[in-house]
Amino acid sequence: MQFLSHEELIGLKQYKYKACGYTVLDDIHNPVWTWLVNRLPIWLAPNLITLLASASILISFMINICYLPGFKGEAPQWVYLVTAISVVLYVNLDCMDGKQARRTGSSSPLGQLFDHGCDALVLHMMLGNIAASLGVSCGWRMAAGCLGILAPWMLAQWEEYHTGVMVYGTRFYGVLEANYSICVVHLVTGLFGPAIWRHHVAFPTVFQGLLGDGMSLADLSLIVVATAGVAQGCHNVHRVLVQPLPPLPEEERGSKHVGRVAASRQLMYLLVVCLLGGILMHLAEGRGALEGRLAFSTFGVLYALTATQLIIAHMCKQPLQAPLVPILLLALGVANTLALKYTSPHLIISSSNEVSSPAPSTHTYKNWVGSWLLSQRDVTVVVAVVSWLWYSTYVLVIINQICEYLDVQVLSISKVLARNAATAAAEAEAKDMQSAVYHATSITEGADGVRYHTKGTAEDSKPHGSSRLGGSEVDALSSYSSPSSHSGSDKEE
């Protein structure tokens, strides 16, 4: 089985990553990331760093499932604190993988695909943890909050497809700030308990006629997130569909379908996936912890599949095809749930989620249709299993194809690259010492009028606070430690 054609693999090999929109916080973190990367072992593969970052979120996600299977309730304080720590680990490790790739000479297009693919999958886990901290279960609130983050993230990938540049934020707010905001949510819950998010916030009198007397902090937070998401999404759409875009260079465009008509069609595909996922989460309200978690994770994995297909289309410079598998699986779950709700002869679900027998006037055709429908739990389980199996198969196959074509390894560095990187580091260290000794030499004139060369130690010659890197090594590392190489650009491996 193969998902990528030879033409797509050629386009992938020629791919070059471009990013912009770094923030002040990125500037502050960048020297720290560089310092940490310089102390990692040479043999540590960049993709392994990405995998470790994703594993930190996965572990916290599983812990939250164990203690809060239905998202609501109160877990031990340490659960929320561990969740906050996992976000810190994730965002910082995720910004170090590209630096390690350039340090070891193992950069490849597979690195960015692996990085962004993991981001797409991890995103829904992070949202699940946020819902657990806020105490928001499946329903329209969860759907609105999740789509407020998932839709703009997808639209950012869509914008990159048409502009060739990934925009990570403004000068003052971007991806790093968003992740630290999530940490604050978990820390607040850990320190004060989830009950704090149920605290009622009163609106000013002038707004009470329109908005009511107030709402909970959780609902207010979700409204803010959804509003910000809509604003960001509109900004993405405006830049692609309204503003005149400069034409992509031929080597970057390849066989892409670009232009307003193609962009509108692709936008419709992506919005259909998001809309069906939101409906699926809404319909899972009151259906129990298992069905709620399955519906949430089903949308999460199918969202990741759609995003991965979009990223691959961009990197391979190919047309974006309609994500039929995600659309069909989500539509199946939604359609069966709606059909059961309105036609099943076996049960009727009231607004209070109480199960009762159907009215005697139920039409015969409804009985006939209902007899062919599976229960919602059966469909939810089947759709979830099929979704995960298809996603896993797709990811494993394309990774194997790319590794074979580019002759790279996904979770390890070849011995040749590791040896060369170690040799380069040793040579740079030796040159550093020689340079330090040379510059420590001073020329003095004795009492006899003879000029003497007096050598100090290497440590004496170093200015206060200088690093162990010499000029040669600094030059060698400048490609990934320069101010322009921040969190976004570090994802190119």
TrEMBL record:
The keyword RNA-binding does not apply. Keywords: Membrane, Transferase, Transmembrane, Transmembrane helix. It holds the Pfam family CDP-OH_P_transf. Its main location: membrane. This is Uncharacterized protein. The keyword Transport does not apply. Residues 449-463 have a biased composition (Basic and acidic residues). Residues 478-487 have a biased composition (Low complexity). InterPro entries: CDP-OH_P_trans, CDP-OH_PTrfase_TM_dom, CDP_ALCOHOL_P_TRANSF_CS, CHOPT. The chain crosses the membrane at residues 48-71, 77-93, 267-284, 296-316, 323-342, 379-399. One of its GO terms (biological process) is phospholipid biosynthetic process. Belongs to the CDP-alcohol phosphatidyltransferase class-I family. It is found in: Membrane. It comes from the Eukaryota. One of its GO terms (molecular function) is phosphotransferase activity, for other substituted phosphate groups. Residues 449-493 are annotated as: Disordered. The lineage of its organism: Eukaryota, Viridiplantae, Chlorophyta, core chlorophytes, Chlorophyceae. GO terms for cellular component: membrane.
